[in-house]
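Deviation from plan, reported transparently: zinc ion complex.
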Amino acid sequence: MADLNIEKYGSQILRQKAEPVQNIDGKVKKIIQDMFETLHKNSGLGLAANQVGILQRLVVLTNPNTNQDMAFINPEWKEVDPEKEIGEEGCLSVPGIFSKVNRFQKIQVTTQDVQGRQLDFFADGLLARIIQHEIDHLNGILFIDRLSPTRRLVLANKLSRINTNGDHE
Ligand SMILES: [Zn+2]
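Because the crystal trials were delayed, the predicted structure below was used instead.
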């Protein structure tokens, strides 16, 4: 297993759209295993493949309700209720920055697991927030993109100090 390097704000790969996974082969399983190790080592809630420099639609996370590790392959979500909720978010790719983000409170998730089984389930609260945050990554979107222009302006100085290749100064 390997602890992977995390791409930081400013890195182009965080702005690209990840490609669907065609075959869940040994290589994909190894990436997932490495992503879990990286997630745990950095005490993150979730991690998308873009964040470790891989443009494939893969997400790993720890379900905050059950503490269970989950790997999603080609995940998608849709809202089931227009209700949104504000909650604080941070991101391993945007170190040192935390801000409140408005997200759908309840969503329906469709994904494949590592065995290639199709999963279809509802998620709410923090789990729904993590899933929306991670699938945003697969589409080249960061949580800071979802903040108001005023809030982004407040954070601009901090953002400019993030070193793309290393850690926060
Ligand atoms: Zn993130």
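Residues 34 and 50 are 13 Å apart (CA to CA). We consider this an acceptable substitute for the interim report.
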